């Protein structure tokens, strides 16, 4: 096998050809069909416990993953999409003389985004818990934070070992076309995380005609806040949503639209409270080290905001920035803990700024306004409308995609008359 493919898990398989390793994961996946769903859920509970005890605590976002892995959460996500969740273990009646069985798709291949590699573990866990075999491809340019998780799972229990055995973790360059093609042609489902170019490249790979594609691509997210409803606790949670993952996750808000009823003191008071919370969270939550190009872009974005008449709150370096502006400036990248606050009087102002690739709008409004806004936002393509503090909680549907339904297949049976 080419040295350009590194086998990260199972480590002892290094030197084996990629097709053989894929086949071994598929065989292990078949064995998962005999493992009850309750036992798979229990194995992920154990992994969650280990993460909450501090294992891998240095990995940004690990607390979010630990919460996602709780059996109560995973079961809820499954039951949200499957009307008959018991069909995951046996045929169940679904109507007169009809029974259905829900089975895993088979082999799920994950191409993980290089900027936030931990996100791929959410789709992996959901795929594994419904019984699929999985191959996770990491970029050769990113740090491996995934294999320690798989190793923890393998050490946790007998079922954890089975789930880990059905998982292959590999690393190779984007230019290694042979490896990409081998993985793509073996997959029953392809999950692609990343930017537009990466998504389009993966979807262009040859695959079997019946292969399912799930594209979790470049999205943007906002927040819409009424300062009269905001409490210190909700403002602190909102700041956490923006600070976590350094806004590299699509679910992190870039624009914060602030309800303006003509009371300047109300606007100023919210900005002051949000700035204090943002600074606290920026200090408390570790971030990735900024390289020269990132620091330069932040300084450039700060200058653009000032030239447009905006006001800045910022640290003495380039760790975080809040810009109070009259209207969104699309030339500002709004990344690396850089938030634009835009006061608005009518929801039409916000609606006019919603792009086609919108994902999340964190919402804190009065009950009647929340109902009005959420309906109109949904019609314009918004996938999620969480409350402050829930922006980065991975859930399903994600990006508007019902993941459990796409990771499973149905078998329908006609039963004998009784």
Write a brief structural summary.
By secondary structure, the protein is of the alpha/beta class.
Question: Could you please describe the fold and organization of this structure?
Answer:
The chain is of the alpha/beta class. It has two domains: 6-217 and 399-414, 3-Layer(aba) Sandwich (Aldehyde Dehydrogenase, Chain A, domain 1), CATH 3.40.605.10; 220-379, Aldehyde Dehydrogenase, Chain A, domain 2. The chain is built from 15 helices and 15 strands. The strands form three sheets. It has a six-stranded mixed beta sheet, sandwiched between helices. It has a six-stranded mixed beta sheet with strand order 11-12-13-10-9-14, sandwiched between helices. β4, α5 (119-129) and β5 (133-139) form a beta-alpha-beta unit. The mean pLDDT is 93.
Radius of gyration: 23 Å
Helices and strands, in order, run as: EHHHHEEEHEHHEHEHEEHEHHEEEHEHHE
Task: Give the domain tally.
Answer: 2
Strand sequence of the main sheet, in spatial order? 1-6-5-4-7-8
Q: Which CATH architecture of the largest domain is right?
A: 3-Layer(aba) Sandwich
CATH homologous superfamily grouping of the largest domain: Aldehyde Dehydrogenase, Chain A, domain 1
Output the number of helix runs.
15
| Through-space gap between termini | 57 Å
Helicity level: 25-40%
Kindly identify the CATH topology of the largest domain.
Answer: Aldehyde Dehydrogenase, Chain A, domain 1
The 3D shape can be described as: globular
Low-confidence parts lasting 5 or more residues at pLDDT below 50? Answer: none
């Amino acid at each position: 096998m080419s040295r350009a493919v590194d086998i990260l898990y199972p480590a002892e398989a290094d030197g084996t050809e990629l097709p053989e390793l894929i086949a071994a994961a598929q065989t292990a996946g078949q064995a998962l069909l005999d493992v009850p769903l309750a036992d798979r859920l229990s194995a992920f509970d154990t992994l969650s416990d280990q993460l909450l005890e501090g294992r891998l605590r240095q990995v940004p976002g690990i607390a979010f993953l630990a919460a996602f892995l709780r059996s109560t959460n995973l079961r809820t996500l499954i039951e949200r999409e499957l009307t008959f969740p018991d069909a995951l273990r046996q045929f169940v009646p679904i109507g007169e003389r009809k029974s259905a069985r829900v089975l895993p798709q088979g082999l799920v291949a994950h191409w993980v985004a290089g900027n936030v590699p931990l996100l791929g573990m959410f789709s992996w866990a959901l795929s594994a818990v419904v019984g699929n075999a999985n191959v996770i491809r990491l970029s050769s340019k990113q740090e491996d934070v995934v294999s320690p998780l798989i190793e923890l799972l393998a050490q946790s229990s007998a079922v954890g070992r089975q789930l880990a055995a059905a998982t292959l973790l590999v690393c190779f360059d984007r230019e290694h076309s042979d490896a990409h093609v081998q993985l793509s042609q073996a997959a029953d489902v392809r999950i692609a995380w990343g930017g537009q170019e990466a998504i389009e490249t993966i979807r262009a790979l040859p695959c079997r005609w019946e292969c399912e594609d799930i594209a979790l691509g470049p999205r943007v997210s906002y927040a819409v806040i009424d300062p009269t409803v905001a409490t210190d606790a909700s403002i602190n949670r909102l700041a956490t949503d923006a600070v976590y993952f350094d806004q590299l996750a699509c679910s992190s808000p870039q624009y914060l639209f602030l309800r303006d009823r003509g009371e300047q003191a109300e606007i100023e008071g919210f900005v002051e409270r949000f700035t204090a919370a943002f600074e606290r969270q920026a200090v408390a939550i570790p971030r990735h080290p900024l390289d020269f190009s990132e620091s330069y872009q932040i300084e450039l974005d700060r200058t653009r905001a000032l030239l447009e008449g905006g006001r800045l709150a910022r640290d003495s370096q380039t760790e975080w920035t809040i810009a109070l502006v009259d209207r969104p400036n699309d030339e500002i990248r709004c990344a690396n803990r850089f938030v634009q606050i835009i006061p608005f009087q009518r929801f039409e102002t916000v609606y006019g700024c919603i792009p086609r690739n919108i994902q999340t709008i964190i919402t804190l409004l009065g009950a009647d306004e929340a109902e009005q806004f959420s309906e109109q936002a949904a019609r314009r393509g918004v996938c999620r409308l969480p409350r402050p503090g829930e922006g980065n909680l991975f859930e399903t549907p994600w990006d508007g995609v019902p993941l459990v339904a796409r990771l499973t297949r149905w078998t329908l049976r006609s039963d004998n008359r009784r």
